[in-house]
Specification:
Elements lengths: L1 H12 L3 H6 L1 H12 L6 H8 L2 H12 L9 E5 L3 E7 H7 L12 E2 L2 H12 L5 E5 L2 H13 L4 E5 L1 H9 L6 E5 L4 H6 L4 E2 L11 E7 L4 E2 L2 E2 L4 E6 L2 H4 L4 H11 L3 E5 L9 H15 L8 E4 L6 H10 L7 E5 H10 L16 H15 L12 E5 L3 E7 L3 E2 L1 H16 L10 E3 L4 E3 L8 E3 L7 E5 L2 E7 L1 E3 L8 H11 L2 E2 L6
Parallel strand pairs: 1-6, 1-12, 2-8, 3-4, 4-11, 6-7, 12-13, 13-14, 14-15
Antiparallel strand pairs: 2-5, 8-11, 9-10, 15-16, 16-22, 17-24, 18-23, 19-20, 21-22
């Protein structure tokens, strides 16, 4: 009887032929739904029609929570400079160099080397950083960049950028040590403490050549927005303020130390960096063992140098590292790890391959065995479409919130905003993926309403969060530094295990 009344009502509402045809599918759905348990839940239907981006953004706001124990003092060192940000294509045109074919150079010795290396990375949409060996030529290029219309000066250097991001937290005291000149000192947040011993009379300048997604130069077209960095930076190249930095820790008493700038040594030549690397590691050894150390990696080209950092010296004495897809693959290539035969990533790095390399780093060079002499227990990996936090169990807490917080800041900062704007971002992360490329990994999926996918391999836990990619990024420089800093703000050391 109820069903007859229901269909009679529907027929009256949809009396015309036009409406009957238009609503035939709806009537069928209503009838079936009513027959098997009543009318459909229109709230659920409405929610399912909302965008994936909206669901992820809303979930971030609901799920990202600060840890129960937060840092109150963080010390950051030791590379700092002033970034001159300019259109890459525009500057090269102003320098009167003609477009041609791309070719990678480990060290830049001329404008021609600069042009070829810039093209090599622009046509791949990849970030890179190089040392310019000729001081006079670099200074001429730097003057042209500073005078180029629209050029902007910003805080630069991984350490200074990480310090700036930390300083946005009013309850966090930040010590920054590096070669800080007058212009950089003026640009730094007032909350940042700079040891007087690290102040210098002149600034170190880095040139940031940016390009937009789809930007063209002759036959070259960038698949995505990114930037190419180069400098003639002697102070940062020698990590000249490292000893000053470590000496200042005794008075400052930080709860967390963040290190960066090792990649700058590479341009100094093998003989110089070999000796300086030993000195640097000995200096880091003076940091109390109960203070966790995060190392922010950056673009490198010398496999021997990377091997020394990874296997013999730096990685074993730090607790955490941050790196992107180029740095991750190069690290594996340098030590003949998983997928080392892969010349470069094609498009979005496959999650299974990334997971394999992260697992290998922690298994081979980390502290998966409590008796290991290595301190490494955490890796924060970031790429355009997603981030992964891989941690050895028992050392780090709040990592789901940490990886989401890093993804959220990548989405907002790339668009030049304080919060995520759904109309300006898009989801590029895979909705389904495997935890390993080996064929033995489990198949996993992304749930937009709980946008952290978790899996385990041995005593290593992986947390993956998608990124809502900015459609028209305003500035990509320092994004990796902001991601790592934000991830650390939301992380905490657990009490089960000492470092």
């Amino acid at each position: 009887m109820k069903r007859r009344v229901f269909f009679s009502f529907v027929a009256r509402v949809c009396g015309s032929i036009m409406w009957r045809k238009a609503l035939a599918a709806l009537l069928l759905a209503l009838a079936v739904g009513y027959f098997y348990g009543g009318l459909p839940n229109f709230q659920t239907s409405s929610q399912s029609n909302s965008s994936l981006e909206q669901a992820i953004s809303a979930a971030w706001e609901a799920l990202i929570t600060l840890p129960s124990r937060q840092w109150s003092k963080v010390a950051v060192g030791v590379n700092a400079c002033v970034d001159v940000v300019v259109s890459g294509v525009g500057l090269l045109q102003a320098l009167a160099v003609d477009p041609g074919t791309g070719r990678d150079h480990d060290v830049l010795n001329s404008k021609e080397d600069l042009k070829e290396t810039f093209i090599h990375y622009m046509e791949r949409g990849a970030a890179a950083e190089r040392f310019f060996s000729d001081k006079e030529v670099f200074q001429r290029i730097a003057r042209a960049a500073a005078e180029y219309p629209g050029a902007k000066l910003y805080v630069g250097g991984n350490a200074a950028l990480i310090g700036q991001k930390f300083a946005t937290n009013p309850d966090l005291m930040v010590l920054l040590c590096g070669p800080v000149g007058p212009k950089l000192h003026e640009l730094l947040d007032e909350q940042i403490v700079v040891p007087p011993e690290s102040l210098q009379e002149t600034d170190e300048f880095h040139l940031i050549l940016e390009y937009k997604a789809g930007e063209k130069w002759a036959s070259i077209q960038a698949p995505q927005a990114n930037r190419f960095i180069f400098s003639h930076d002697v102070s940062n190249g020698a990590m000249s303020t490292l000893e000053t930095f470590v000496a200042s820790l005794e008075e400052f008493q930080p709860e967390l130390v963040v290190l960066s700038g090792f990649h700058m040594m590479e341009g100094q030549g093998r003989e110089l960096w070999g000796e300086r690397l030993k000195e640097a590691v000995a200096t880091i050894g003076d940091i109390p063992k109960d203070i966790p150390i995060h190392l922010e990696l950056a673009s490198m080209t010398d496999k021997d140098f990377m091997n020394r950092i990874m296997q013999e010296q730096v990685l074993p004495v730090v607790s955490s590292i941050g790196l992107n897809e180029q740095e991750l693959l190069f690290l594996s290539q340098a030590a003949e790890g998983p997928h080392a035969a892969l010349p470069a990533w094609k498009g979005i790095p496959e999650v299974g391959r990334v997971s394999d390399i992260l697992f290998w780093i922690l298994e081979q060079h980390g502290r998966t065995d409590p008796s290991s002499e290595s301190d490494l227990t955490r890796i924060h990996f970031h790429t355009l479409a997603y981030h992964i936090l891989a941690t050895v169990d028992g050392y780090w807490g709040n990592q789901a919130a940490a990886v989401m917080a890093g993804a959220r800041v990548a989405s907002s900062q790339a668009c030049g905003l304080q919060a995520v704007d759904i109309s300006k971002v898009e989801l590029k992360a895979p909705l389904e993926f495997h935890s390993s490329h080996s064929g033995l990994g489990e198949q996993l999926s992304l749930n937009p309403e709980e946008p952290v996918t978790v899996w385990h391999r041995g005593n290593i836990t992986f947390h993956l969060s998608p990124v809502l990619v900015c459609k028209r990024p305003l500035r990509t420089v320092g994004l990796g530094d902001a991601i790592s800093a934000e991830g650390l703000v939301y992380s905490e050391i657990t009490s089960q295990q000492p470092f």
